[in-house]
């Protein structure tokens, strides 16, 4: 693949052309399947997720930041066409998406940390609520089936956070792996699929959904529906409103919510509100989707390009998910959202220079005039002053005599303690200097420190 000059802005690198991919015939056409996966009741085009919304969101500040030139951007990832760009299964898909798309998107997300995006984690991690490892899940699936398995609408469905997607998204404070980091919370589940096995166009242009977006009869076992059910189940279980299916042919990005109207305030505000919401999503869910083609790219002047690319769309959805990722009964317009702000609670430890200069600064404070925090009790009037002296009370009526005396004595004690500390530090410094110049005299002086 030919080398490209380093981009000058976030927008320029995110709208660059994706590499051409070669697709050998895959050895198998099957996709992952699980009988307990949920299925959205309806699929609807997400018309709000577009380039115009990206330009307008956060008052235009996000796009303004993306178009700023002079950013410290890395070079484009180097790809060897006959090695990196040959895709025939999920492992080779993961390789190319990680080396090319993940590298570019992650570098640009780091430059807009003030908008608090989530980080693209290539390998999804177990969250705090997740229990056993995937091996334990496999053991459960080998148990003999029950006589009767209840359908989706029979009773309340059970949810499992032990199912882990191919990749995810965490906030930077939760993904750094430090001991003080908060427990990770999944914000943007992702699934990788091979482009030669699955395309979203097969669903929407085929005979799978009707004009309202609902599934037709007989499509339950369709191979094309399995990736939709899989990633939708992850989002419901993990409580994430956003998700995506990534291939080297498209970025299928979506948002989920219930099809029906919002329930009464009692259900929303109750402690079981989230559980009730998940139950509704499992039986009556809506998936709003958009598919961004792999071939979308900028050619020429970046300021004239007005469309989403795969990398630009992924960058945008990571910003949205980093600010608000929780599922809800409904959502307001994206253009009305504002970046979520969290206070900075980090404590910076003092540097070595600050520690070394502390005795000197303390010694300098001896030369400053002593201030006890009290005003003078009386003042003699000058001869030429026209006004008479004002009566000054030593103690106010609202404060007891004993209290003022206690405060005064406390201030005196603190000042005396500071002066003694200064004397000890100054004496130690003087002894060290003498010991350096006259070793014998310094040894005698060190023994006198206890007398100070």
Could you please describe the fold and organization of this structure?
There is one protein chain. This protein has 452 residues and is α/β, with parallel strands linked by helices. It has helices at 10-14, 51-56, 61-67, 81-84, 90-110, 134-141, 172-175, 201-204, 226-238, 265-269, 273-284, 310-323, 352-356, 358-364, 401-437, 439-446; strands spanning 42-45, 118-121, 168-171, 190-192, 242-246, 250-258, 285-293. The strands form 2 sheets. Strands 1-7-6-5-4 form a 5-stranded mixed beta sheet, with helices on both faces. Strands 2-3 form a two-stranded antiparallel ribbon. Helix 5 packs across helix 12 (310-323) and helix 15 packs antiparallel against helix 16. The radius of gyration is 34 Å and the shape is globular. Mean pLDDT is 76; it is low at 129-155, 342-359, 361-378, 390-408 and 448-452.
Features:
alpha/beta; 7 strands; 452 residues; five-stranded mixed sheet; two-stranded antiparallel ribbon; disordered C terminus
Question: Could you outline the blueprint of secondary structure elements for this entry?
Answer:
Layout: H1 10-14, E1 42-45, H2 51-56, H3 61-67, H4 81-84, H5 90-110, E2 118-121, H6 134-141, E3 168-171, H7 172-175, E4 190-192, H8 201-204, H9 226-238, E5 242-246, E6 250-258, H10 265-269, H11 273-284, E7 285-293, H12 310-323, H13 352-356, H14 358-364, H15 401-437, H16 439-446
Parallel strand pairs: 1-7, 4-5
Antiparallel strand pairs: 2-3, 5-6, 6-7
Helix pairs in contact: 5-12, 15-16
């Amino acid at each position: 693949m030919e080398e490209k000059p380093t981009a000058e802005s976030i927008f320029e690198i995110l709208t660059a052309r994706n590499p051409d991919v070669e697709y050998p015939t895959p050895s198998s056409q099957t996709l992952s399947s699980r009988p307990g996966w949920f299925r959205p009741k309806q699929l609807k085009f997400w018309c709000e997720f577009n380039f115009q919304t990206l330009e307008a969101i956060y008052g235009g500040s996000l796009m303004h930041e993306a178009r700023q030139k002079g950013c410290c951007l890395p070079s484009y990832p180097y790809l060897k066409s006959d090695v990196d760009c040959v895709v025939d299964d999920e492992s080779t898909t993961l390789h190319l998406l990680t080396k090319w798309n993940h590298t570019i998107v992650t570098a640009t997300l780091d430059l807009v940390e003030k908008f608090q995006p989530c980080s693209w984690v290539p390998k999804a991690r177990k969250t705090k609520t997740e229990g056993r490892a995937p091996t334990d899940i496999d053991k459960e699936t080998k148990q003999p089936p029950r006589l009767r398995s209840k359908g989706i609408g029979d009773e309340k469905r059970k949810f499992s956070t032990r199912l882990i997607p191919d990749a995810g998204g965490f906030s930077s404070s939760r993904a750094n792996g430090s001991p003080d980091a908060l427990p990770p919370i999944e914000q943007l589940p992702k699934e990788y699929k091979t482009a030669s096995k699955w395309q979203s166009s097969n669903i929407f242009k085929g005979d799978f959904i009707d004009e309202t977006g609902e599934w037709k009869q007989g499509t339950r076992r369709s191979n094309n529906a399995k990736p939709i059910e899989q990633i939708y189940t992850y989002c419901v279980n993990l409580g994430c409103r956003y998700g995506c299916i990534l291939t080297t042919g498209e970025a299928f990005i979506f948002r989920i919510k219930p099809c029906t109207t919002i329930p009464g305030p009692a259900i929303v505000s109750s402690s079981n509100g989230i559980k009730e919401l998940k139950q509704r999503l499992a039986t009556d869910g809506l998936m709003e989707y958009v598919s961004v083609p792999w071939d979308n790219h900028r050619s020429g002047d970046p300021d004239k390009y007005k469309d989403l690319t795969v990398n630009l769309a992924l960058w945008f959805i990571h910003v949205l998910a980093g600010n608000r990722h929780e599922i809800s009964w409904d959502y307001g317009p994206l253009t009305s959202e504002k970046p979520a702000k969290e206070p900075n609670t980090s404590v910076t430890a003092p540097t070595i220079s600050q520690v070394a200069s502390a005795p000197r600064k303390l010694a300098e404070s001896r030369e400053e005039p002593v201030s006890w925090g009290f005003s003078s009790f009386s003042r003699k009037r000058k001869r030429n002053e026209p006004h008479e002296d004002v009566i000054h009370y030593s103690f106010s009526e609202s404060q007891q005599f004993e209290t003022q005396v206690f405060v005064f004595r406390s201030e005196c004690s603190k000042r005396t303690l500071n002066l003694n500390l200064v004397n000890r530090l100054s004496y130690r410094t003087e002894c060290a200097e003498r010991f350096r110049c006259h070793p014998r005299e310094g040894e005698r002086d060190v023994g006198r420190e206890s007398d100070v």
